[in-house]
Every structure is written in structure tokens, then in C-alpha cells.
Specification:
Shape: globular
Radius of gyration: 23 Å
Mean pLDDT: 94
Low-confidence stretches: none
Oligomer: single chain
Largest sheet: 5 strands, parallel
Length: 424
């Protein structure tokens, strides 16, 4: 965290550009120059209000958003000084100050509309949609499959990114607006459930995320010690005493995204002696940012490229448990990814799969949602092919799978729902 003095000095580096590219690059459209100017003026409450008016999950996004690829990437200070204004850290500074103040809620609800909205999924998209609707005077019921709200903010992010239970503190702040009720341990699985939600509520928003993970599809995938990285992170986040959490001494993480980085770094921080992060292509196509990759290497993670798993090998001393992973080397030949005929084997007593997630809910096909690549197809405002049903976040087709984008999906769908019901 920045100290007050550091924050003011950093804020004063900003040129407060007119038509600022950083604001345009922000998926939620935060007025970046405005909130930074307020920090320079010592008005942290006003700064946080500017942030949260555009992004109600601005505190979490300040921690996990790849600002180096978005707002900070287009900062004019990069061309002038080779270093952008630390927009993410300044955003966290302002929002944290508000959250820790005596009066953290800066917005009030509009007059009660008398209408009720159902939201399925208490992740970033669902929470943003619910909060935006509550501000407009709607009553919102959120149905979530997990014991705690927050979605991937609670169950899918490395614990070092969100210490001190920040995900739940942010949810508590969101609920402080009033009019939002969370119903846990609810899974939308049948046509009857969907029909009941459509009948009992004036509109429905789906922010279910991605429940299933891709499989490696190689021999040995069922050996002990092989698990999904998402499940590993979820268990980590819900374990009070980390000394009780099993972690291998030789860990191989398969994948090149943010989850792979999180799982790799967490394994190293928990005491793994060797951690290998293995990706099937080159570094330029990895979905994790360069900053995240550098962070992994700083924590002792070895990153390998151009390797694809072909077999998970059982341990000689412990049959039934993983002992190594065999990889085939790959290269681009005539524009296509091909095996070179060479192999490499890396010893492992734990293998974490971080190769992406899928929606995998048969209800969507049964309900005749229009799908695109297995995810829900929508228009720009999140309207699905079913009347009165919107969708956003990772379950929506065509996205970037970023927390900040999920927030924008929820916010825009809330506006569309409000416009629809107002016209109706």
C-alpha cells in the first residue's frame, strides 16, 4: 500500500489529460484524471466516490486488474518518462481509505420501484448488477452456489492478492446500500428453477461464471496429486491454518494464464522446493501479463515454453501417485504448431491443471439459450435470446475473462434492465 505522502507524490505526476486515454482504456470508464486530482488535493473520499460510481468493485479491481495492460499501458507518462502513473495503486489508496473510514457508504438508494430482480451468481458480474439495481430502487435477490458470496474474488484469487478477508469486506460494503439479499447454496440446474425465477421476478440476470474445467486428456490424469488449480486456490482461500494445506515439494503447474501464476506462486510461498509453470506455446501468447510472469519468476517459479503434456507418470516408490510429467516439445512450422519429436520429463509430486474453464451447464441448451462457443450469446447490453434474461461475466460469450470486464457487464445489464422495466 502507498503511504499518504507516496500517494500525493504519485498523484502529482499525473498531467490530468483532457479526453484521457487511461479513462478510455478502463472497461468500466472510471474518470482516472479526476480521481487522481482529488488524491493530490487530499480529498480521498471524493476520489473514492468517483471510482466507485463507475466501478462498485473498485477496491478489488485495484488489486487484481492488469492495469499494466489497460489504463497504465496508455498513460502519456510512458512516452515522457518510461514509467506510467501508478493508477492501480492510487485507486487502491483511495478506496481503502473510504472502506476503513467511519462512513464508508457514499451512495443512497433511489425510491423503491416495487419491482424485484433475480441475480444468479454472487461473483463480480452479479454483485455489480445487483448493486447498480439497488441504487436505482430495485429489490434484488442473489442466488449463489457457494457458502460465501464473491465468486472468484472469494474462491479463485491467490490469497496474497486479497489479504485480510478483503473480498468479504467489499461484499459487506456493497450490501450496505440496502435492498440486496443473498441466498447461498443455490444451483441453477433445471428448467423448473429457471421458469420459477422468470415467473417470480421482473427480470433475471445470469452471472454464473464457469463451473467446469478443461481436462488434460492424457494417460495418468487420475493419479493422486493431480488436481485443478482452481480447486487448489479455492481450498487455499478457505483454509484458516495454511500449515494444514497439503502442497508438493516438486510442483508442476500446466497453463499460462493468471490462475497458473496464482497457483505457482502460492505453491512456492507454501514451501514447495521446485515449482515449474509449463505452457504449450511461446511467451507472447500467454494470457497472464508480463508483470504477473515476472512476479512468478521473482518468487522462484521456473517458466517453460513450447511444451505440451503427453503423459503423467506414476511414482516408482508410491504407485498410484504422480511422480513426473512427460512433455512433448513443440514449435511453429509453416505457421502451424507441430511436435518436434523431442520430449522432456519433469519430476513432480503435485500437478496443478490451469488450462481454462467451461460453462458446461446442460440447462442452457435445454432452455434454448443461443450459445457461442459454449457460453451465453448476448447483445452489447447483455440481453440474451430469452426475453427478460440478461447475462454477464465469464459465462457470457466474447469476453476477456477479467474481473473489471465482469463488473462492466453487470453494470450495463442493470442499466438495460432499468430501461426495459421503465418502458414496460
Amino acid at each position: 500500500r502507498l503511504t499518504q505522502a507516496q500517494a500525493v507524490l504519485e498523484a502529482e505526476r499525473c498531467l490530468y489529460c483532457y479526453d484521457a486515454p487511461c479513462a478510455t482504456a478502463c472497461p468500466t470508464g472510471i474518470d482516472v484524471p479526476s480521481f487522481i486530482k482529488r488524491i493530490a488535493d487530499g480529498n480521498l473520499r471524493g476520489s473514492a466516490t468517483t471510482i466507485l460510481d463507475s466501478n462498485p468493485l473498485g477496491g478489488m479491481c485495484a488489486r487484481v486488474c492488469p492495469t499494466e495492460n489497460l489504463c497504465e499501458a496508455v498513460c502519456v507518462k510512458v512516452a515522457q518518462e518510461g514509467k506510467p502513473v501508478a493508477i492501480g495503486k492510487l485507486q487502491r489508496h483511495a478506496v481503502d481509505a473510504l472502506m476503513e473510514s467511519a462512513r464508508p457508504q457514499v451512495f443512497t438508494r433511489a425510491a423503491d420501484t416495487g419491482k424485484k430482480i433475480a441475480v444468479v451468481g454472487a461473483g463480480p458480474a452479479g454483485l455489480a448488477c445487483a448493486y447498480s439495481l439497488a441504487r436505482l430502487g430495485y429489490d434484488v435477490d442473489i442466488f449463489d452456489a457457494n457458502p460465501k458470496p464473491g465468486g472468484l474474488n472469494e474462491y479463485g484469487l491467490a490469497s496474497y492478492k486479497t489479504p485480510n478477508d478483503f473480498a468479504q469486506r467489499e461484499v459487506a460494503w456493497l450490501l450496505g446500500i440496502g435492498g440486496i439479499h443473498i441466498k447461498n447454496d443455490y444451483k441453477l440446474e433445471t428448467i423448473e428453477q429457471l421458469s420459477a425465477l422468470q415467473k417470480d421476478y421482473d427480470a433475471l440476470f445470469l452471472g454464473m461464471g464457469l463451473a467446469n474445467t478443461h481436462q488434460l486428456g492424457v494417460p495418468g490424469g487420475a493419479l493422486q496429486g493431480v488436481q485443478d488449480a482452481v480447486e487448489f486456490i479455492a481450498r487455499l482461500r478457505q483454509t484458516a491454518d495454511l500449515s494444514t494445506l497439503p502442497v508438493g515439494r516438486r510442483v508442476v503447474v500446466i497453463g499460462g494464464g493468471m490462475t497458473a501464476v496464482d497457483a505457482s506462486v502460492q505453491s512456492a510461498l507454501l514451501g514447495a522446493e521446485n515449482v515449474h509453470m509449463v505452457y504449450r506455446r511461446g511467451p507472447e501468447t500467454m494470457s497472464s501479463s508480463s508483470v504477473e510472469q515476472q512476479w512468478a519468476q521473482t518468487n522462484g517459479v521456473k517458466i517453460h515454453h513450447w511444451l505440451v503434456p503427453v503423459e503423467i507418470i506414476a511414482s516408482i516408490n508410491h504407485p498410484g501417485h504422480v511422480g513426473a510429467v512427460k512433455f512433448a516439445k513443440q514449435a511453429i512450422v509453416d505457421g502451424e504448431l507441430q511436435a518436434t519429436g523431442e520430449f522432456e520429463t519433469i519430476e513432480a509430486d503435485m500437478v496443478l491443471k490451469a488450462i481454462g474453464q467451461t460453462l458446461g451447464n446442460p440447462l442452457l441448451g435445454q432452455a434454448k439459450f443461443k450459445l457461442d462457443g459454449g457460453r451465453i450469446a448476448t447483445d452489447r447490453e447483455g440481453q440474451t435470446s430469452l426475453p427478460g434474461v440478461w447475462a454477464g461475466g465469464d459465462c457470457r460469450a466474447g469476453g476477456l475473462d477479467l474481473t473489471v470486464e465482469a463488473v462492466e457487464h453487470g453494470k450495463q445489464s442493470a442499466k438495460a434492465i432499468h430501461a426495459h422495466l421503465s418502458t414496460k
